[in-house]
Each structure stands twice: as structure tokens, then as C-alpha cells.
């Protein structure tokens, strides 16, 4: 990401339902920028509440249902799920009119948020796996 010479700090939103991974990304962003960005977290599930760094920067939104989307997807109506995700993405974009950058962990919510962002907003998408889930075995 490129910091501008503007007087206001960058506003960076981290989207990702895994609190520990999102917090780790946020900590790196704060270390790598000077001045430190105005950092917020969206799409956080129950784990964020256990991490003070995440909890204090969390912005409640319908995207906090991201864990439910993941766990309930096999039994959900896919059209209804997509409508809910699109509405949550739209809510984030409208709540963040001055966001400078979005770092997004995952695919589903990221896809819709990125498609709605203004062209000048910088984007970074990370694909990562919960280390507690292990890795696929051939």
C-alpha cells in the first residue's frame, strides 16, 4: 500500500472471520506504516471478542455472520446466502466512505466488497487456512 502525504492517516479495513488471523494482519499493518493507519476490523466472529486488539477495533456489521455463512453453507439456500453476503458487503462499503485500503482474508465476502469499492481504494486479498483445521490429505 502507498501512504499519501495527506494530513489524515490512512484508514484500513481488515475483513476476515478468523479473529486471530485478522489480528495478526492488523498488527503487521500497524508496524509497517508510519504514521500508523486508522485500522478497523469487519466480518469478525466470536474469536475477535477474545482478542483485545481485535475487539477494540471491531466495527459491528451484518458481515459478522461470516462464520455462519461458512458453517451453514452446505444446508443453506445458495441464493439467499448470496443475497445476505451482498447486503453485508454493501453495508461495509457504505459505512467506509473514506477507506484507503481493504485487506480481505478469504473469498466470498471479498469478491463482493471488491466489486463495489471505488477505483482508488487499494485492495489486498489473502487466502489462508485456519491452522487448527489441518491440511488436506491426498
Concise synopsis of the structure shown:
The protein is an alpha/beta fold and 138 residues long.
What does this structure look like?
The protein is an alpha/beta fold and 138 residues long. 38% of the residues lie in helices and 14% in strands. The protein contains five helices and four strands; from the N terminus they run βαβαααβαβ. The chain has a four-stranded parallel β-sheet with strand order 2-1-3-4, sandwiched between helices. α5 links the parallel β3 and β4 (122-126). α4 crosses α5 (108-116). The chain is globular and about 45 Å long. It starts with 10 loop residues before the first strand and ends in a 12-residue tail after the last strand. The relative contact order is 0.19.
Number of helices: 5
Give the helix/strand class: alpha/beta
Count of extended strands: 4
End-to-end separation:
37 Å
Give the overall form.
globular
Poorly predicted spans = none
Describe the biggest sheet? 4 strands, parallel
Estimated share of beta-strand residues = 5-15%
Order of helices and strands: EHEHHHEHE
